[in-house]
Amino acid sequence: MNQTIVRQEALGFRGWPLLLALVLAGCDPADMMPGDQSAFVDQGFKSTIAAVEVYNLRHGSYPESLDDLTYTGAWFPLFRQFVRYRRVGEGYVLRVDADAADQLAYPERFFSGLGLVKTNVGRETESL
After folding, report:
1. Residue range(s) defining the domain that contains residue 109
2. Is 12 part of any domain?
3. What pLDDT, in 10s, does the model give residues 15-26?
């Protein structure tokens, strides 16, 4: 068996060449997701927050740009196509530029303790 195929199967993802080709062709990965795109956009939003917050813990400040992040996952380059980051003061702004962004909403406690000062992602109203 070809070593490339063995490596791809060991990584558990065989479709990366097609995915890479689509990304390089300028396709929006969120548009390629079958059915509900909000799950993919949700994962991109949360993964970016996690990477930015880990960077802050390790370095004592938020990154100047997403290019400063290290140890991100294999999907991170795809998320960067629709997640926009900007450092502001001691925090950051995170914008999701995808059609599914308006379907995302999180409870206020999700944002607690984060340096995220502004986002276009919704906040749920919590009832007691």
Report:
1. 37-124
2. no
3. 556 555 555 555
Q: How far is CA 113 from CA 40, 43, 49, 117, in A?
A: 24, 19, 12, 11
Nearest by Cα to 37 from 92, 101, 94: 101
pTM of the model: 0.71
* 28-53 tens-digit pLDDT: 555 555 456 888 999 999 999 999 99
User: Are 85 and 110 a contacting pair, CB within 8 Å?
Assistant: no
- Residue 47 inside a domain? The answer is yes
Q: Report d(CA 43, CA 57) in Å as an integer.
A: 21
DSSP string across 82-98: TEEEEEETTEEEEEE-S
* Total number of domains in the chain: 1
